[in-house]
Amino acid sequence: MITLTETAKDYLKSMVDDGGKKYAHLSVKGGGCAGFEYKWDMVDDVEKGSLIDDVLVLDKMAEMFVLGCTVDYIKEFGGSYLTVKNPNAHSSCGCG
């Protein structure tokens, strides 16, 4: 359904440990400049979706929009961030 790279898993696990919550949560909401935007949060339970790699809860409503995606954690000189690489996206926003 969705793939987490090793760097993304390590980062999410560190955020879970530091944040006191049990899981990272990924959802999709409409209204972004390219149609949809990904929303990250921390949650205590898996009731909101499917558990991926024991660290990420994928929102039930987001499943159809992230089918085949890869979540990666990028470290660059200017900063670091999570990115969702979606092979089904027809366009994307220039602001990231």
Task: Show the helix and strand layout.
Blueprint: E1 2-4, H1 6-19, E2 23-30, E3 36-43, E4 49-52, E5 56-59, E6 69-76, E7 79-85
Parallel strand pairs: 1-6, 2-5
Antiparallel strand pairs: 2-3, 4-5, 6-7
Short description:
The protein has 96 residues and is mainly beta. It has one helix spanning 6-19, and strands at residues 2-4, 23-30, 36-43, 49-52, 56-59, 69-76, 79-85. Helices cover 15% and strands 44% of the residues.
Properties at a glance:
96 residues; mainly beta; 3-stranded mixed beta sheet
Kindly state the mean pLDDT as a whole number? 85
Instruction: Please give the radius of gyration in angstroms.
Output: 13 Å
Instruction: Sketch the major β-sheet.
Output: 4 strands, mixed
Pick out the low-confidence regions: none
User: Which structural class is indicated by helix and strand composition?
Assistant: mainly beta
Secondary-structure element sequence?
EHEEEEEE
Give the terminus-to-terminus CA distance.
Answer: 23 Å
DSSP E strands, number: 7
Oligomer: single chain
Q: What coarse outline follows from CA principal-axis ratios? A: globular
Q: Portion of residues in helices?
A: 10-25%
The number of helical elements comes to: 1
- Strands ordered across the widest β-sheet: 3-2-5-4
Percent in strands: 35-45%
